[in-house]
């Protein structure tokens, strides 16, 4: 007679760890739920939101152009006939009205950049690369549209015809022009910097995968994974509290 053999240990079910309350949530899952997962809403949704942001910022350029036209200082010109032709020159050669035109556009563009960044952050806190790209592109397109709208609403571009119309020595306003083309980037730069700062300070943080759902830390192995107190090579069969397998 021989002693009965110990039955083989049951196969280890790896799926049991998937739903263990102490295990980290599966990849892509958000522990607090919500419409978005840990990896975001998806590339298609992010691209769609970026396009909406770019279109909205571009359309806001119309308002920027109107404000620039209304608030920018006027540059006075004077025309005189000379040898059958008309000569147009600045009434005040030392005046700073032209600088004020560029400065007004720049300040307005910076304000629009700050407002657009705050609105985008409030509506879409998680951010994302496509959203930031859409915000930057929309700022550039909005600035270009504002430039053209302001020039269109301002005085006519044909200063010679305007000088002949008003007569010799009569002051008339110069066309609305943007001398410093770098001002077209002010909106985008302000929007990107403000949005980056808001995201860094108040944006959502990625949860620690090795945390209890109630907030306690989950023990980790030296290799970064969940720690198994039974060791990596010990069978998962029946064993006594002292870690010994029953003898056959």
What does this structure look like?
- This protein is mainly alpha-helical.
- The protein has five helices and three strands.
- A three-stranded antiparallel beta sheet has the order 2-1-3, covered by helices on one side.
- Strand 1 and strand 2 form a beta hairpin.
- Helix 2 runs parallel beside helix 5 and helix 3 runs antiparallel to helix 5.
- The radius of gyration is 34 Å and the shape is elongated.
Order of neighbouring strands in the sheet with most strands? 2-1-3
Strand content: 5-15%
Estimate the mean pLDDT confidence: 77
Order of helices and strands: HEEHHHEH
Using the CA coordinates, give the radius of gyration.
34 Å
- What structural class do helix, strand and pairing data support? mainly alpha
DSSP, total strands:
3
Major beta-sheet overview: 3 strands, antiparallel
List keywords for this structure.
248 residues; mainly alpha; three-stranded antiparallel β-sheet; 5 helices; 3 strands; 6% strand; elongated
Please summarize what this structure is:
The protein has 5 helices and 3 strands.
């Amino acid at each position: 007679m021989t002693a009965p053999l110990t039955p083989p240990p049951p196969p280890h079910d790896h799926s049991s760890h998937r739903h263990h309350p102490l295990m980290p949530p599966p990849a892509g899952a958000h522990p607090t739920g919500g419409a978005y997962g840990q990896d975001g809403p998806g590339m298609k949704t992010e691209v769609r939101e970026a396009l909406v942001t770019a279109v909205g910022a571009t359309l806001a350029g119309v308002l920027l152009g109107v404000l620039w036209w209304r608030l920018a200082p006027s540059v006075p010109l004077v025309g005189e006939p000379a040898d059958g032709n008309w000569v147009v020159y600045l009434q005040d050669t030392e005046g700073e009205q032209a600088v004020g035109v560029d400065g007004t556009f720049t300040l307005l563009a910076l304000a629009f950049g700050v407002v657009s960044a705050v609105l985008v952050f409030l509506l879409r806190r998680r951010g994302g690369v496509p959203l930031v790209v859409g915000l930057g592109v929309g700022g550039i397109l909005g600035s270009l549209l504002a430039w053209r709208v302001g020039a269109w609403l301002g005085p006519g571009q044909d200063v010679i015809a305007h000088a002949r119309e008003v007569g010799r020595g009569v002051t008339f306003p110069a066309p609305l022009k943007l001398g410093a083309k770098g001002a077209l980037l002010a909106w985008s730069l302000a929007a990107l910097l403000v949005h980056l700062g808001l995201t860094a300070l108040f944006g959502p943080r990625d949860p620690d995968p090795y945390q209890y759902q109630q907030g306690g830390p989950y023990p980790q192995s030296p290799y970064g994974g969940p720690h198994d107190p039974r060791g990596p090579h010990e069978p998962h069969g029946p064993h006594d509290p002292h870690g010994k397998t029953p003898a056959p």
